[in-house]
Write a structure and sequence with these properties.
Strand content: under 5%
CATH class: Mainly Alpha
CATH topology: Globin-like
CATH superfamily: Globins
Number of domains: 1
Bound molecules: protoporphyrin IX containing FE
Low-confidence stretches: none
Number of strands: 0
Structural class: mainly alpha
Largest sheet: none
Mean pLDDT: 93
Length: about 140
Amino acid sequence: MAGAADYLRVKELIALTHERESMTIYEAMGGVEGIRRIVEAFYPKVQAHPLIGPLFPDNIRPVMERQTLFLSQFFGGPPLYSEQYGHPMMRARHLPFPITEERAEAWLGCMALALEETGMEPQLRRAVLERLKGPAYHFVNS
Ligand code: HEM
């Protein structure tokens, strides 16, 4: 027979499910700290990649910092990037660099590896990559 305790458990489960459904990708990624970990795993791969590595400066730290702020904002977190740097205008910011389709694919490939390395669950990994595909191909300019 279902008692009060079972009823409470069901209510709790429903609340949890709703919470998860209304979570932003940002929250599911672990907030700014989760994103920082991804960025830390991502840039060494970018730097080591023959197609895209040479586009980046040796001192990658400032790029990592700006990327952490940007991705937090991009995935639904607080507008940390805009607060410091104004409107993202990311396509325009990438215009000085010759970005080909192959380079967009390389960038996404490094990101896929970084997400896997941080232990993110496959479903979330797919959602994150899907969201990044749009801008990556949009930045193709060469
Ligand atoms: C499509 C392939 C891509 C390539 C080859 C690429 C390459 C670069 C390069 C060379 C820089 C400049 C580093 C410097 O400061 O000297 C940069 C900066 C940046 N990229 Fe990308 N990028 C790509 C895609 C993306 C995507 C998909 C995003 C995010 C959606 C992104 C976000 C950023 C951010 C936030 C910065 C720093 C902007 C700033 O200076 O404030 N990039 N990228």
